[in-house]
Amino acid sequence: MKSIGIPLDHVTKGSSLFILEIPEGRSRERLIRLGILTGQSIKCIERLPGGTVVIEKNRQEIAIGATLAKTIRVAYASAQGKRRE
User: Fold this and answer.
1) What is the pLDDT at residue 3?
2) Which of 48, 75, 80, 82 would staple 5 via disulfide (CB 3.0–4.6 Å)?
3) CATH fold of 6-79
4) What are the residues facing 21 on neighbouring strands?
């Protein structure tokens, strides 16, 4: 199965994004507890040395480690609020 979108660890700071795919298993459970679900809107607010990505969702900042960020697939949101890849 071909993956869609791009990995979260490849996005640029300040980008508005849509979550397209999150990993299976324990990582998925942890992300769901944080409210990070497929179809949700997020914003990349910082990229830290070592690959950690800090996102904002509903005014909450969440740091996602580099390894996990590689498994989350996202798409950039266009200016009109529609998804694009």
Assistant:
1) 61
2) 75
3) SH3 type barrels. (2.30.30)
4) 73
